[in-house]
Protein 1
Amino acid sequence: MENTTEMELSLGPRGIGVAMTRNEDARFLAGKGEYLADLNIPGTQEVAFLRSPVAHGIIRDIDIPPEYRSQVFLLSDLGDINPVRAVLNHPDFRASDFPALADGRVRYVGECIAMCVAPTRAEAEDIVQQISVDIEDLPIVTDAVAAAEGLTPVIHEGWPDNRVFVSKPSSGDMARAMAEAEIVIERELNMNRQCVVSLEGRGVLAYQDRRLDELVIYSSTQQPHMIRMVLAGLINVPEHRMRVVAPDVGGGFGVKNNLQSEEIAIAALAKVVPFPVRWVEDRREHLVASAQAREHYYKMKLFARRDGTLLGIDARVVVNAGAYSIWPWTSAMECNMVVGIMPGPYKMLAYRGHGTTVVTNKPPHGPYRGVGRPGACFALERMMDELAREVGISQDEIRRMNMVTPDEMPYLTIAGKLYDSGDFPLSVSKARDLIDPEKIRHLKRSNGQHGVYHGIGWASYTEQTAHGTNEWLSRNLSEVFGYEAATARFTPDGKLILEVAIQNHGQGLETTLAQVAATELGVDPRDVVVRHGDTAVSPYGLGTFASRSMVMAGGAVGRACEELGKKVKRIGAHFLQAHPEQVELRNNHVCVGSRSVPFSEVTRAAFRHAQDLPPGEEPGLQISLTYQPESGTGAFSYATHAVHVSVDIHTGLVTLHDYVVVHDCGTIVNPMIVEGQIQGGLAQGIGNALYEESPYDTEGQPLASTFLDYLLPGFPEVPTARIGHIESPSPFTRYGVKGMGEGGAIGAPAAIVNGINDALAELGVEINETPVSPKRLLKALQRSVEKTA
Amino acid sequence: MKPPPLVYERAESVSDAVAILAEMEWGARVIAGGQSLVPMLNLRLAPLIKLVDISRIEDLRAFSDDGGRVVYGACLRHGEFEDGAVPDCANGMMQRVASRIAYRAIRNRGTIGGSVALADPSADWITVLIALGAIFTVAGPTGRREIHADEMFLGPYTTALGEHDILCSISLPKLSAEGRTGFYKVIRKAGEYPMTTASVVRDPATGLNAVVLGAVNRPQLRLRRSSAILAASTRWSDDVGAALIDAYGEDLAAAGRDGDPYERKLCETTVLRAVQQALR
């Protein structure tokens, strides 16, 4: 028996709460990740999609040169294949079919029509160029607001108009709120359409495994189990004859969190050709043909007392969800999220939302980091700033005074969300201390010199995470994502493997899940293998999205390791001649007092020498368990962002000088990873606020199809946020953990645009549209000059 | 985004390159750094059959300084100007401009001659070369000839170079020790193409005074009245600024380009800030 104390000191604790570097970085930083395009499977042929060049039309003819006919695949060449029909379980939801390849009609530029197969992608693209498609034009719809008013030609046969769904959440006494209102603020705002732009694009590779008689599909996806489950029904392959693998995935952000047309098409193609086939998305395809996000139009009314007390909000929202409803989220997801979360961290007498989702001839909407909330936060927080200005209260105080307070937790909001824990006003105070408004006020005295104006922008929000069964049921989706699963198993040499159904595509889950195991089992988290992203290696689970994996998979790993630990203790105690309740698991050892037995002894007995086990103990050391949080209503993180901006009124360019985030995501598993998530989300929020936009002309043609026109922030445009932590453990989750993957992106558009408005308020300029491009800003400045002239 | 099939030939000399180009009436194009051409090929926007690689031709990578002018080979790379590997004819302006073209990875390959030949209206070099009064030496099927900067750039992506011409070198006058310059561009983010550029040269000793504006999707514009204000001023002041705004307005009106208030404002800022640098 060894004395473990010294070893423990040298290793240090690496359980929950420790800022350890990431295990997976050993391969990523060495450039040794294995992404979809890196797969080297002999005989693989490459696929290029022929995509629709027009936004709406009926395909009259597809002319394929005879010499290429065997290399070109249309929908009719794919055999047994069904269209996607993604619906809400609600009688008012209008359903439509989305075929993997066009079925006689196209409804957006970039829609897949045919697959061209060749030994290389370049040759496949050569074939694409040889095919001519005769499309009879149909009227094109791009204007969402007109579509919401029923003023546009109908896109889906059998529908009376282009409205998919109207969500009308309403609660509280709106008549009283309006009657008591001394201040009414009304604004129109909009957040323009965006692409997602994961670092690695999408991609799919599929082939028949003859030995196992299964269809193997590699996809750059966030949810391999879900993809297998839904594909089974669409291409008629039973789930036990199909394996879906997500290799290393270079970022998802939501765009890989839905069933993609290309996944269906490539999987179906692999059933009819005798070789592996692969499609790797290029940047142009990503910018014009993958799921997009945002494009919200708001008409907001805010009712308040003269003392700044918020009484009510009326939010009318239109979201342009593009041509089709994608599985499983449906086209109504974005808009329903906007009107569902609108009241934010504030108390009020009444809330009335009216959210209309419309179809148009643009690419379909999918989830993107934040889903709906960046827009809702932008709209509401702009209104809060205008209220502050109107009543002469500071931007931070107006927020603090209207927020839900810690003593009111858990708090059921006017919109029916159950806030579990936290101190919202404290996030504002701490952000105020960090950003130092006095310093910026001093700078503002020199506003106008060299055309530069300084401002400070605020945004507070709540971030619903790890939504459980109740929340998903309330959204009427076809799937209920209320739990996760994990297998924990030791190997005979005493090491631990975790097999999980979530997918790690940048979140550091190969490290944080190992930290959870370290907490439960006293193993060294550096030496834990975390396997994920493969239907063949883990029990069924839902995937990584909606800021759920740390709570859900962390909980499942925690439960599994706790149970496994009981058996380890029994076996170890047997060796130590102690009672199982007396022993502890520390540093890969079962310990009692100063005596210990290494796990390798325990596993030797469990796997190889069952004769050494305690009487009645079963051989083996592995367990599979699921976890669902105690409440299915979600764990709410929250934050306040504060940013110091300056605007050059002669160029319309905005500079971010300082960015502060004070957040609370409950128990922090790994502070370094949490800060990285905030910083990464912030980068995307800055893109949303200032750079990223996917405009379309009235013919439905995309105007940003390369990075020349679709601007992303780079390192020089993204300041390193100064981050303040508050830790209010959630009462609903194991360890008190809350999700936190999206918040950085939620707050930034609101905070930055508020900062710009604060800077330019003295010039009478107001801007309520993202991204704030130099053109929009200079035009707003010119309008205000004309107004005062 | 993969290129269509292409024939690739590497030219060993300028005459070799001219001969290869002349073999085909249409569809052959010179490639040097390839930083604009390759993306266009990948997007299948440039319907070409043959690429003639001139990047290894020694003559095109040479430079010389005769005391009055510096001659730069067309295949010198932006990065070589940035690193000071070639003489700077304009008291540091060449280095300053080069160091902010796109990203270093692009500057490692992109060439000054390639920028000229493509004539992207937002390319950084072009207003500089017009302001400095560059003289371009061009080789074609009928021999060599010179083209002055004012005759070179005919509009966006349009130059006086013929289908079978190769740009060989760029000759620029050396500024006197008192010569001052300014270069300003408005970019939305680091490394992007500018929305507007302006180059300013003021060198009383050599009589060189120029203000040249470049704005996206427009031909470059020599601002003659603005240039006169520059010549008459020695140091920046509010009065100079006011006079310049008037002159700039007249220049724009004379060119029929005073329509869009947004573009006008952005260009005004660009010109003013470039002139301000030269009068510091």
Protein 2
Amino acid sequence: MKTIYTALTGFLLILATGAWAQGSGPTDPQIAAIVVTANQVDIDAGKLAKVKGHSADVKKFGQLMITDHSAVNKSASELVQKLHVTPESNATSESLKKGGEENLAALKKLHGHAFDQAYVDHEVTYHQSVLDALDTTLIPSAQNAELKALMVKVRPAFVSHLEHAKALQSKLNESAK
Amino acid sequence: MRPARTCCAILAGAWVIGGSVSAVSATPASKLYVVTIENMQFTPQKLTVHVGDRVEWTNKDLVPHTATADAKAFDSASIAPNASWKFVARHAGDYGYVCTFHPTMKGMLTVVK
């Protein structure tokens, strides 16, 4: 669990403290890379949860993450093609990718209820982190109106996922007592 | 442009005829109501219709949704983005419904005689 939170903290610090030049946020190609990576990381975790999840609720949630984040990435990919924007890898997208890989490695060592709890705990933190990033950095920094609109449009799905994950977290904590 | 307009007019006419036939078979004043699914919400969240009316759920989000009543009194199954699902309200009652994918999404359909 420590590894997971360290990776997330790193991601948040990068967003908050300015891996970007002072007074400017990420560029649109950098935002595109962050959005696509953020979705892909959660799709990969969802694929693991679908297979390795202990409870039916967790497996179902994993499938939902695959479906929803794939749908968002499809829209994002279509938009960047239309706008002729080439996603540009950057410190934040790399940090997200690395954090995702570390999360998967940590989860693969766990089984049963412990897996479910660690996966869902991470989903809560992850969705909160991405929402914070959308609100404080990504949406305000986007220059292209359509890219900004896409992020505004997907934001409620992240809120719903966060609430869903929190409800699962409570349920898992109850069943652990 | 003229052939296209004629074509649309014919199609519209056919739809009206079709609609009126189905309305007669349901109730004379059968109406179509639309519930928009957007921003992970059903809008309107509460809707009252009469027996025989049609209700259509249109998904304007980027992710799939369902409109599924308690005890599956009605169930759209997955509605893809930009797709819709329609049903005729045949039985009076209060129908609480959810999106089975996203439990935070809740709606209420009331069907009166």
